[in-house]
């Protein structure tokens, strides 16, 4: 009986470790271009879920992002937005990446994630595409979801009247 209980305890503990590393949402990265997409990440910075935050994002095939690294997923969202005409050659486009840590809101953890994001987008930054990377809070993320206002804009709500901007491009 004791070996069975011990074996069950080990299986239970391994299940918790697996869940925490692979399935639990550790961080969120929003990609705001108009469309806006929320990438939910596990502790390994892999996408466990991609969510369309606004109407325009519904036109993107974001189901394929699940399982990708955050770097690959961000580049894929940008490619999908470009293919759908949200990013064009004739006008400067803005991509705002915002990190939100769901449990541990430390500056060091934000910085690690921002370094990954910066290195992933360095090659695509051109004169026509400007990338801005910042961090935010769970509270503002929830507000962004409820109001369908890009999280990147909500970060500035105390400094600027964001109601006059519909897109990240208009803001910048």
Overall pLDDT:
79
As a percent range, the share of helical residues equals 40-55%
Question: How many separate domains make up the residues?
Answer: 1
Can you tell me the residue ranges where pLDDT is under 50 for at least 5 consecutive residues?
A: none
Total count of strands: 5
Biggest sheet details: 5 strands, mixed
* Oligomer status: single chain
Distance between the termini: 66 Å
Strand content: 15-25%
Number of helices: 6
Radius of gyration: 18 Å
Structural class: alpha+beta
- How do the strands line up in the largest sheet? 3-2-1-4-5
Overall outline: globular
User: What sequence of helices (H) and strands (E) makes up the elements?
Assistant: HEEEHEHEHHH
Give an overview in words.
The chain is of the alpha+beta class and 172 residues long. The chain has one domain. The chain contains 6 helices and 5 strands, in the order αβββαβαβααα. Helix 3 links the parallel strand 4 and strand 5 (129-135). The longest helix has 22 residues, at 2-23. The model has no long low-confidence stretch (mean pLDDT 79).
Can I get a quick summary?
This protein has 172 residues and is an alpha+beta fold. It has helices at residues 2-23, 70-83, 107-121, 138-147, 151-154, 168-171; strands at 27-32, 36-41, 47-52, 93-101, 129-135. The mean pLDDT is 79.
């Amino acid at each position: 009986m004791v070996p069975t209980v011990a074996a069950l305890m080990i299986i239970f503990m391994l299940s918790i470790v697996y869940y925490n590393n692979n399935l639990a949402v550790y961080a969120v990265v929003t990609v705001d271009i108009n469309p806006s997409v929320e990438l939910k990440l596990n502790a390994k910075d892999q996408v466990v879920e991609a969510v369309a935050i606004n109407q325009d994002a519904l036109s993107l095939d974001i189901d394929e992002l699940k399982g990708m690294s955050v770097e690959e997923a961000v580049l894929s969202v940008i490619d999908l937005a470009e293919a759908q005409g949200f990013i064009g050659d004739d006008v400067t486009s803005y991509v705002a990446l915002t990190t939100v840590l769901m449990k541990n809101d430390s500056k060091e953890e934000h910085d690690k994630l921002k370094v990954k994001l910066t290195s992933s987008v360095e090659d695509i930054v051109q004169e026509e595409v400007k990338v801005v990377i910042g961090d935010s809070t769970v509270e503002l993320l929830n507000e962004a979801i409820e109001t369908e206002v890009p999280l990147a804009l909500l970060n500035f709500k105390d400094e600027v009247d964001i109601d006059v901007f519909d897109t990240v491009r208009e803001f910048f």
